[in-house]
Amino acid sequence: MFLTGRRHVRAEIEKHLGRRAAALSIKPNNDDIMGYIRMRLGKDTSLDAMDSCLEAEIIKTIAENIPET
């Protein structure tokens, strides 16, 4: 069985499966996160609602708030 989830899910899995469950911690690459955000912003259907300054501000704000876990 393969499960993905945030850190709090691990305790729940161990509660039910004990130490029989192996855990692997994976941290996303910040460049991948930023690429995903740019792609999603590019799919915006309200093209008049955003200019390059707003897009840059959105990306900057999100980049500053990516956790360092």
Detailed description of the structure:
- It is a single chain.
- This protein has helices spanning 7-17, 30-42, 52-64.
- It has one domain.
- The chain has 3 helices and no strands.
- With 69 residues, the chain is mostly helical.
Helices and strands, with pairings:
Elements: H1 7-17, H2 30-42, H3 52-64
Helix pairs in contact: 2-3
The average pLDDT score comes to 84
What string, H for helix and E for strand, traces the elements in order?
Answer: HHH
Share of residues in strands: under 5%
Structural category: mainly alpha
* Poorly predicted regions: none
Helix content: 40-55%
What is the terminal separation in angstroms? 25 Å
Question: How is this structure best summarized?
Answer:
The protein has helices at 7-17, 30-42, 52-64. With 69 residues, the protein is mainly alpha-helical.
Give me some keywords for this one.
single chain, 69 residues, mainly alpha, 54% helix, 0% strand, elongated
